[in-house]
C-alpha cells in the first residue's frame, strides 16, 4: 500500500501527516484481510501488523505523537473476553 503513495505523488500531498497515511494503509489491509478470512480478529491483527511495518519502514507514524496509541492493541487481539467463557474452561477442569 505504501508504494501507491510513491506512484501517485498527488495522493501523498493530499494526505498530510504520516499518521493519516498509516491509518489509510492499515484500514485497507485490515478490511481486506478480514473480508478474505471472514474473521474480524484476523483483520484486526492485519491492521496492527500494517502499523508495525509502516513504523519499521519510516521510523515513525506521524508528526503528532500518535505512535503509542496506534501500537497498544496488538497484544490483546486474541485475548479471551470475560463473557466468552469461564477460567475453569481454560484449564480443562
Automatic annotation (TrEMBL):
Keywords: Transferase. InterPro entries: Me_CoM_Rdtase_asu/bsu_C (IPR008924), Me_CoM_Rdtase_asu_C (IPR009047). It is an enzyme of class 2 (transferase). The keyword Transferase applies. Residues 1-61 form the Methyl-coenzyme M reductase alpha subunit C-terminal domain. This is Methyl coenzyme M reductase alpha subunit. Its EC number is 2.8.4.1. One of its GO terms (molecular function) is coenzyme-B sulfoethylthiotransferase activity. One of its GO terms (biological process) is methanogenesis. Pfam families: MCR_alpha. It comes from Methanobacterium subterraneum.
Amino acid at each position: 500500500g505504501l508504494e501507491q503513495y510513491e506512484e501517485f505523488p498527488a495522493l501523498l500531498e493530499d494526505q498530510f501527516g504520516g499518521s493519516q497515511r498509516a491509518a489509510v494503509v492499515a484500514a485497507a489491509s485490515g478490511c481486506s484481510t478480514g473480508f478474505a478470512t471472514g474473521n474480524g480478529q484476523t483483520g484486526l491483527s492485519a491492521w496492527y501488523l500494517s502499523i508495525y511495518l509502516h513504523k519499521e519502514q519510516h521510523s515513525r507514524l506521524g508528526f503528532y505523537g500518535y505512535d503509542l496509541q496506534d501500537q497498544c492493541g496488538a497484544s490483546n487481539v486474541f485475548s479471551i473476553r470475560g463473557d466468552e467463557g469461564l477460567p475453569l474452561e481454560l484449564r480443562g477442569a
